[in-house]
Amino acid sequence: MAHAEPIHLHPTATLAERVLLPGDPGRALALAQSLLSEPLMFNHHRGLWGYTGQAVADGELLTIQSTGMGGPSAAIVLTELIALGARRAIRVGTCGALARDLALGDFVVARESICADGASRALCAEARIAADGPLTEALSAAAVSAAESGASGRRAHTGTVVSVDLFYDPDPAGGASRGQGAEGALAVEMEAATLFAVGARAEIPVACVLTVSDTFSAEGARQRIDDPALLDGAEAMGAVAVAALSG
Predict the structure, then answer these.
(1) Domain spans of the chain?
(2) Are the C-beta atoms of residues 35 and 64 closer than 8 Å to each other?
(3) Quick one: pLDDT at residue 177?
(4) 167: Cβ contacts below 8 Å, ≥ 6 apart
(5) What does the pLDDT look like over 197-211, one tens digit per residue?
């Protein structure tokens, strides 16, 4: 960081060395209520809600900090968290399915991301950037275990995703928001490549687990998950991330 103190995060509680990174501030609150015992607000500045508390699952300190939407915002947040003392981070977000066998609510663990966004390229990433290997393996194992033990019908997938800049694509046929030109990618999202790049530059393990929130027909028609199912999926995904960080 070029500045001695973080500008965008104003901590009001202790920062844990391990951090979950949802994009949505409201989802950060929901995860804090689900995963933490007596959470304290870590940050409120700029609407980037964050919370710290003891994880119910293992009693260890955990911070849940929202990143906002897109790579540029995510890069600011993770860079400042690392400057403050974060040492491991997992993105817990949503994605649109590209592989036809993905269903709404499924888990996707990103082993790598195709860099179809601007922020990761600005951080000198090349065509693809990998997540941290050991943390990703722990995350994948936890996702598989949760999927196999649950009654939701949710499945777990591990593979490549593609990170893009656009959620609403001006191309009616699909294009960037559906990962056009990203053959082999399971899903499309907006922050993973940038977070992997920030982590790699700082030598901090960063991984990513996603819940499928959107699927697309062969004609490009979008089907969106409903709010109760998304909340259920987000809480299950958060529990998976905590299990990976507990190892």
Answers:
(1) 18-246
(2) yes
(3) 53
(4) 69, 177, 190
(5) 999 999 999 999 999
Beta bridge mates, 90: 20, 207
Helix (H) or strand (E) segment spanning residue 21: strand 18-21
Residue type, 143: A
Encode burial over 24-35: b for 16+ CB neighbours within 10 A, e otherwise: bbebbbbbbebb
Query: Taking the mean position of all CA atoms in its chain, how far away is CA 186?
Result: 15
Query: 18-246: CATH homologous superfamily?
Result: Nucleoside phosphorylase domain (3.40.50.1580)
Averaged pLDDT for residues 237-244: 97
Task: Match 């958060």 to its residue by tokens.
Answer: 238
Pair 28, 22: CB distance under 8 Å:
yes
Catalytic center residues: 214
Q: Does the reported pTM lie above 0.85?
A: yes
Quickly tell me which residue has 């400057």 as its tokens.
83
Phi, psi at residue 133, to the nearest 5°? -65, -60
Query: Residue 46 carries which DSSP code?
Result: G
CB 115 within 8 A of CB 125: yes
In the predicted model, what is the mean pLDDT of the chain? 92
Query: b/e for 73-88, b at 16 or more Cβ within 10 A?
Result: bbbbbbbbbbebebeb
**HEC profile for 109-145?**
EEEEEEEECHHHHHCCCCCEEECCHHHHHHHHHHHHH
Tell me the two tokens of residue 223. Answer: 């089907």
